[in-house]
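ok so dumb question maybe but i'm new to this and my supervisor (M.) told me to 'just get the structure for Kelch-like protein 10' and walked off. so i did the thing. is this what she meant?? sequence i used:
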Amino acid sequence: MRSWCKASPQQGKVFICGGFNGQECLNTAEYFDPVTSQWTLITSMNNRRSGVGVIAYNGCLYALGGFNGVTRMNTGERYCPRTRQWMDIPEMYSPRSNFATEIIDDMLFAIGGFNGVTTIFNVECYDSTADEWYDATDMSLYRSALSACVVKGLPNVQDYIYQNRVVNDSDISTTVDPPLTTEAET
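this is what came out, is it supposed to look like this??
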């Protein structure tokens, strides 16, 4: 039994990491192969993590934050399928569990969550090339137990992004200008 875990697709398989078995937080990880309909255990994570953030990023699987049974964590680790080993990555700025993860502009984002005292609105992003976390624009609302996704091709994308931000889409870089206002709107 496993609750409060996270799953992520990677190399045609579904990986699941961490969670809670009703008695303790887990450090185990496994994957499901839909071709063979089999679950396979992989090397256990370095830390127990319930409410963990899990996401595939640049050929590896990342397990971030979570609750280890004592405290909310700001640590993270990456699983390399080639070496079958977990390696620690730099710590996030904010400890968190039950948060969203997503990849945007080749950066791994950790969004919101619970820090052990309160629900948070903080957002930070990780660049695997620089092996470094950066502060990102925080949300305007406190959110925990949330999800995030990337939606491409929104016709009203200007309503959701920073104005005059450079957007990289496929091989095209463009600058998104603010919508024009008419005299009636001013």
